[in-house]
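help with this:

***
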Amino acid sequence: MSVLEAFQDGEQVLLIDQRGKRHLLTLRKGEAFHSDRGWIPHDAIIGHPDGSWVRSSLGLRHLALRPTLAEYVLEMPRGAQVIYPKDLAMILFWADVYPGCRVLEAGTGSGALTLALLRAVGPEGKVITYEQREEFARRALANIHARMGEVTNLAVRFGPVEEGLADEERVDRVILDLPEPWRLVEPVLRPLRPGGIFLCYVPTIIQSQQVAEALQRHPAYGLVETFETLVRPWNIEGPSVRPFHRMVAHTGFITLARRVVPEDA
């Protein structure tokens, strides 16, 4: 078994009990995980491969896995509400965030979107993120470092994004998770390159309408569209095939546009 396959001291693990309850923890030699299902020594996980089964002191099975990014985002500590994986996936795809891409993000929150962007742009790309609330920024950085270690392609700016736009270098994408993104439709034109993508994520259709109308009125934007993503899980157990009674329905609206060269330019 290779070193990469085996869990290491200091590594994160996702423990899932037989009820499906999930626990995210960092492995430490000599420590133990405690729950109402009994306790499990970390040493019983360290050295074993990803996907191993371990039993608690009560004899109950738990599955030990390396958390995916989606699993980590849902379980990590948060200061602000995170963007759900279903929306993160759509943002990365529709904003066309690629390896080597330079992205300006505003509204770091708990760091879910920042994590997804960092992985998508890769070591040759760069993410510049703005956050006004210092406690959110501290939590986001802790989440990022816990997942990725030290990162060299992340720049964190404290304060309102509109105050820093004049000094930013050219970027390929602007992605906003802010209450009033329409206020930035004009200011972000300075760093956003022609052909680049403007994308914002807001919780209400009224906000989406305001930003969409601002983009539609502006001659430097085209291909404006707004959508939301709904995910409905299905239960498939023998003859029982039905949708879940609960689903992750509305979480937010995504509005995007392309930066174009005005006809009279």
